[in-house]
Amino acid sequence: GIRGVRAYVDGIPATLPDGQGQVSNIDLSSADRIEILRGPFSALYGNSSGGVIQVFTEQGTGPPTLSVGATVGSDGQEHPSLKIGGSTDSFDYLASFSHFQTDGYRDHSAAKRNIGNVKLGWKLGDTDKLTLIVNSIDLPEAQDPLGLTRAEFEADPRSVDPAAILFNTRKSVHQTQEGVTYDHRVNDSNNFQVLVYSGDRSTVQFQSIPTGPQASPTQPGGVIDLARRYSGLDAHWTSNLSMLARPLTLVGGITYDQLDEHRRGFQNFIGTTLGVEGALRRDENNNADSSDQYLQASWDLSKRVTLDAGLRRVSISFDSHDHYIVGPNGDDSGSADFSATLPAVGVLFALSDRVHFYVTAGRGFETPTLNELAYQPSGQGGLNLALKASTSDNTEVGVKTRLGQSGQLSAAVFETNTADEIVTQTNSGGRSTYQNAGATRRRGTEISWSTSFATDWRSLVSYTWLDAIYKDGFYTCAGTPCTTPTRLIPSGNKIPGIPKQVIYGTLGWERPEGWRMSLEGRYLTKVFVNDLNSDAAAAYALASVSGGYQAKVGSWQLDAFVRCDNLFDRNYAGSVIVNEGNSRFFEPAPQRTWLVGLSGSVAF
């Protein structure tokens, strides 16, 4: 999953109230647009909202339209998809289904996934609309090859850690969720909207925990079985008013989200047979409830100056009820409560119609997730309820300009100072524990420039520089289990997992019909793999090229494409496992890959 960033699909949170999110249920083949909110104002979305990603699926329009597509690629990749949509005067509909499978670039990294989406909308007179969204994902098995040591990575990036084969490390996920949105236009100045949603998500993960440590009566085993039921609502009122003869928009609302988790742990062996579900070693119910109230205002002080401000009150509670009380494994039930008030304020100066300058500031808040609370570094049972929530102060200054024929330029300078940062304390066999590390600082800049020129040519260049450090020194664990951290992480060390510089560029020739092509380049500096900064994944540069053709054949609109990624066949680590206890930090990304696709649509 992801943390620190909140994700939404058609307004339904893909981030649970504890702050952990996932994007596996997002089907890009039916996505209409994706909106990104980053910076201080993202804090107004509550817990774990250092940034916000909102995905909006298509809305059916016009006559019934059928779309089919298929792509095939390297390493056995297959991705067929099907979509149908349309609308009448009072009803719109869209349904999509896609299947994805791959053998994986590395050994023991195959995966399959099926996604289905349905979106239905009803106009109820001139003032009301009701929208129903149903989403389902089935991930029957995703193999986990685990990370590699530096020597293994350099010798054979396709290889797999032997423990992954021994214990057949893998994960399966099944999820269904549904949501209903009701929009009511009260009058020309006021609007009311309410969203109600619910869902079920089950996850089973087989880890590579050795059998020996599982003999301890407090060891929860090497198989995680999670059954989660979640639900919530968001109701808000929007008013378009005036104050001192200037336009004022107010948005006020409440949210309530709840998560019921049944967590069980099993041994990952039966006798001498490994990688199977064995004896029960953990059984508990964990609950997370979040209740927020928020108010946002946007006031045009003049034709050139706009003031935006907001306030959100966040209250979150965790409860754990232990049902596995066997011998020396006592009752590990417990609870924890967190709350915060999150303000944000910004001023926008329209220096001209083409140049906008802004200054923003806001407070962020992030609780530990249930997964981060799940294990104690000492190896004892129960949740790690000693973890505290982290808070952050965020500031940003930026400018956005339109340069006529030269395109658009945006630049921002930002700083985030965090107290009680939640960091990885131990990480071994696919299981992590966490602690609070004190103060951290992230300081950086983002610059992007996009333009169009000649006929149908488009280009984009972006650059990010980010200096992320631990302001306070702290102690971490040298091994697992760990009762007392003894290894010093000095102040000034870089926060691992983050490249200091990223450069991206693309040049494309895009036409509404006929041929098209594009070139892409990406460069990332090295990424430290642990808090000690003793090793790092090397910097890398990649190039990609793609081309395609669009044409109308009879009543069908056809679109074909071919793409090659990592054109020069670089060997690089696409991600790292931070603080991995056996120094298996590196997760290799594929070398040169290809993809070919064909899609078509027809209206009836």
Topology:
Elements (H helix, E strand, L loop, with lengths): L5 E4 L2 E2 L17 E8 L12 E7 L7 E9 L3 E11 L3 E12 L8 E14 L3 E16 L6 H6 L6 H6 L2 E18 L2 E17 L16 E21 L2 E21 L2 E2 L2 E2 L5 E21 L4 E18 L11 E17 L4 E12 L3 H4 L16 E13 L5 E12 L2 E7 L2 E6 L3 E14 L3 E14 L3 E3 L10 E3 L11 E9 L4 E11 L2 E2 L7 E2 L2 E14 L2 E10 L7 E4 L9 E3 L4 E11 L1
Parallel strand pairs: 1-4
Antiparallel strand pairs: 1-2, 3-4, 5-6, 5-36, 6-7, 7-8, 8-9, 9-10, 10-11, 11-12, 12-13, 13-16, 14-15, 16-17, 17-18, 18-19, 19-20, 20-21, 21-24, 22-23, 24-25, 25-28, 26-27, 28-29, 29-32, 30-31, 32-33, 33-36, 34-35
Give the tags:
604 residues, mainly beta, 4-stranded mixed sheet, 3% helix
Question: Could you describe the 3D structure shown?
Answer:
With 604 residues, the protein is mainly beta. The protein is built from three helices and 36 strands. It has a 22-stranded antiparallel barrel. Strands 2-1-4-3 form a four-stranded mixed beta sheet, with no helix packed on it. A hairpin with a 3-residue loop joins strand 5 (65-73) and strand 6. The longest helix has 6 residues, at 150-155. It is globular. It starts with 5 loop residues before the first strand and ends with a strand.
